[in-house]
Write a structure and sequence with these properties.
The chain has 395 residues and is α+β, with helices and mostly antiparallel strands. Helices cover 34% and strands 22% of the residues.
C-alpha cells in the first residue's frame, strides 16, 4: 500500500498523523488528535513474537501483508474498533478493541466469518453494508447496532470504506462504541426533564443563577412572583430584582462565600422588587451545584417564604421592629415602654408611625400586617424579626 493509500485510510481515523522527513522536519500532517507519528519506525515498541494483521488461512494467523503494516501498527491498540474483511465476509484482520466487542481476542476473530459472531439478522445487515461499500467504492459513515456479549444492545458509530490490495477490494471499518455515551445522554435528558417538571409544576419560585449573579433558568412561579415573563427574566442580573436594603451587604458576603465554596448552602432574607415596583420580603435558600471546580459556577435560589407585596416605604428601625415583636407577643403599651426603657409617649408615637407605614388602623391589624409583609418571622416564638441575624435574636 503506497503513501497515498495510507493517507486515505488515515483520513477516516480519529487520530492526528504526521510525516517526518530524514532530517526530522514535519513534511505533512493531518487528522484530529495528536496521538500518532507516522515518522516513527514501523515496528518500534512492538512486543516480540506478537502477531499482527490478516491471516493467510482460516484459523491460522500470520504476519500481516506488507500493504497492511502501517494500518495495523496504527490502530492495533487504538480505542476505536477496526477490522478488515474480504468480499466473502471473512475477517482478514481485527484489532483488540473490535475483538473486545465480542468478548474475545483478535486471533480468535481472524479467519472467521461474520456469522460466527453475529446473529443472522445482524450478519445480513453487515454483509449488505459491506456490499454497498464494494459497489460504491466510496466511504460511508453510519451508526450500527449490535448485540453485546452480555446480551444487551450496543451502538457504534464510524466509517466503512474500501481497501484495494493485491488486485482485490476488501472492506475496512473503524467504529467507536457509543453505547455508554448514549445511555448517559438519555439519563441526563431524563434528569433534565424531571428537574424541569419539578421546577415548573411544584409552584416553588426558584431560579438558577450564574456565578456573576445572572439568571440562567427560572421557574414559572418565580416569573409570576416578580411579574416578569420567563423569557424576560432569564438573562437578568439578580441584583436588579432586589431592593436596596441594609441587609444587602450581608447577602453579598454570603454569596461570595458560596461562590468561593467556603459554604455550600445559606438561607438569607431579602426584599424582592417586582416589575410594578412593589416590594416583597422573602427568605432565600441558596445552594451551590457540583464540586468539580474550585469556584462554584451556578447557584440555585429558592424562595422558601414570602411576604405580601406592598408599596416601598422607609426601612423600619430596630426599635420599631422590637415594638412590633412585643406587640405581637401581647404586651401592652406600658409593658413595651418598660421593656424598652422608653416613655409611654415615645411608644405611642412609634405605634402611630407604624400604623401609617404599614397601612393598619388597629393594633391587631398592625400585627397581622407585620406578619403578612414578612417583617416578623412566621414560624418563630417569641415573635422576632424575619431578618434577625441569629435565631435567638429579637431584631
Amino acid at each position: 500500500m503506497d503513501d497515498s493509500r495510507l493517507k486515505a485510510l488515515l483520513a477516516h481515523l480519529p487520530v492526528f498523523w504526521s510525516d517526518v522527513d530524514g532530517t526530522g522536519r514535519m513534511a505533512e500532517r493531518g487528522g484530529e488528535c495528536r496521538t500518532f507519528d507516522a515518522g516513527r519506525p514501523r515496528h518500534e515498541g512492538r512486543a516480540t513474537g506478537r502477531t499482527h494483521g490478516p491471516a493467510a488461512e482460516t484459523h491460522a494467523p500470520a504476519a500481516p501483508p506488507r500493504g497492511y503494516a502501517a494500518f495495523v501498527d496504527l490502530v492495533d491498540l487504538a480505542p476505536a474498533a477496526a477490522f478488515i474483511r474480504d468480499s466473502d465476509g471473512r475477517y482478514l484482520w481485527a484489532n483488540h478493541a473490535y475483538a473486545h466487542l465480542y468478548g474475545t481476542v483478535p486471533d480468535e476473530v481472524v479467519g472467521k466469518y461474520i456469522e460466527d459472531f453475529d446473529a443472522p439478522a445482524d450478519a445480513d445487515q453487515f454483509r449488505t453494508l459491506d456490499q454497498e461499500i464494494l459497489d460504491r467504492g466510496t466511504p460511508v459513515r453510519h451508526t450500527i447496532g449490535y448485540r453485546r456479549p452480555d446480551g444487551s444492545a450496543g451502538r457504534a458509530v464510524g466509517h466503512r470504506f474500501p481497501v484495494r490490495e493485491d488486485a482485490r477490494t476488501c472492506v475496512a471499518g473503524i467504529y467507536v462504541d457509543v453505547t455508554d455515551h448514549l445511555r448517559a445522554t438519555v439519563q441526563w435528558q431524563e434528569a433534565e426533564e424531571n428537574l424541569q417538571a419539578l421546577r415548573d409544576h411544584s409552584g416553588l419560585p426558584c431560579a438558577l443563577l450564574s456565578a456573576n449573579g445572572r439568571v440562567v433558568e427560572a421557574s414559572a412561579a418565580a416569573a409570576e412572583l416578580l411579574r416578569i415573563s420567563p423569557h424576560d427574566l432569564v438573562g437578568r442580573r439578580a441584583h436588579t430584582l432586589l431592593a436596596p436594603e441594609p441587609g444587602l451587604d450581608r447577602l453579598h458576603h454570603r454569596w461570595n462565600n458560596l461562590i468561593a465554596r467556603r459554604t455550600r448552602r445559606v438561607e438569607v432574607p431579602a426584599v424582592l422588587v417586582d416589575a410594578h415596583g412593589l416590594h416583597r420580603r422573602a427568605q432565600l435558600h441558596l445552594t451551590t451545584i457540583g464540586h468539580t471546580t474550585a469556584r462554584a459556577r451556578h447557584v440555585w435560589a429558592v424562595v422558601t417564604h414570602q411576604g405580601l407585596a406592598h408599596e416601598a416605604h422607609p426601612s423600619l428601625t430596630a426599635a420599631q421592629i422590637r415594638i412590633l415583636s412585643l406587640l405581637a407577643e401581647g404586651s401592652s403599651n406600658s409593658d413595651i415602654a418598660t421593656s424598652l426603657h422608653l416613655s409611654r409617649q415615645t411608644v405611642d408615637y412609634h405605634l402611630s408611625r407604624l400604623r401609617h407605614l404599614l397601612g393598619a388602623a388597629t393594633r391587631p391589624a398592625l400585627v397581622a400586617r407585620a406578619y403578612v409583609l414578612g417583617i416578623l418571622a412566621p414560624r418563630a416564638w417569641p415573635p422576632r424579626s424575619a431578618t434577625a441575624a441569629h435565631p435567638l435574636s429579637t431584631v
